[in-house]
Amino acid sequence: MKLLRRRTPTPSDTVEPTVSEPEVVNGKGRPTPKRRDAEGRRRGPVPPPPVTQREAYKRSKTTKGAKTTKSERRQAAAERRERMMSGDDRFVLARDRGPAKALARDVVDGRRNITGLFMPLALVVVLTFMIPSLQNVVAIGMLLIMIVMAVEGVYLGRLVSARVHERYPDDTTSGLRLGWYSFIRASQIRRLRAPRPRVKPGDPV
């Protein structure tokens, strides 16, 4: 029976393994990012200004650390509405954007339109229809007014389309869309139009 003998260690056996320096990790088990990289990811590109008040409210809720008071939000909303009413393309609705639509608004606002009486007359019709003796007269009068409004709407649409294509020959907006846009604009009460009129009735456009 052979006796167990201790083997003499060789130099290769005495080499200690290289211990790598542990990587600093955060509490989530990931390496802690550098401050410069983290700030770059947080900042990112500057977003465009909000178009509507709802978009601004959502953006203010998702922005961390941006605490605004109620008065500041109200002031920001008032500023956006003022720019929208002044006709700034960055704040108006999509249907009102572009130089062609701005020219169409100026042409409509520079005229006195019978179509603008649509809303007041509609209110009169609703009130007078409750009187049986005036129903027939009011119905005939409204029919005549509707015919006049239709004729004026066709004339106004052709006028606006001609002006727009003369001043902006590269514009691709169809004459039908410009005519309908002009008719809707003309049917609104002047002080309630948005964006607000930039010209007065009779001013050259």
Keywords:
mainly alpha, 7 helices, 205 residues, 50% helix, single chain
Along the chain, the helix and strand elements come as HHHHHHH
**Uncertain stretches:** 19-25
Number of strands: 0
Shape: extended
Beta fraction: under 5%
Briefly note the structural class of the backbone: mainly alpha
Query: What's the gyration radius in Å?
Result: 36 Å
Q: Report helical residue fraction.
A: 40-55%
Mean of residue pLDDT values: 79
The number of helical segments is 7
Describe the biggest sheet? Answer: none
Distance between the termini: 121 Å
Task: Write the SSE topology.
Blueprint lengths: L34 H9 L9 H10 L7 H16 L13 H11 L8 H11 L6 H33 L7 H13 L18
Helix pairs in contact: 4-6, 4-7, 5-6, 6-7
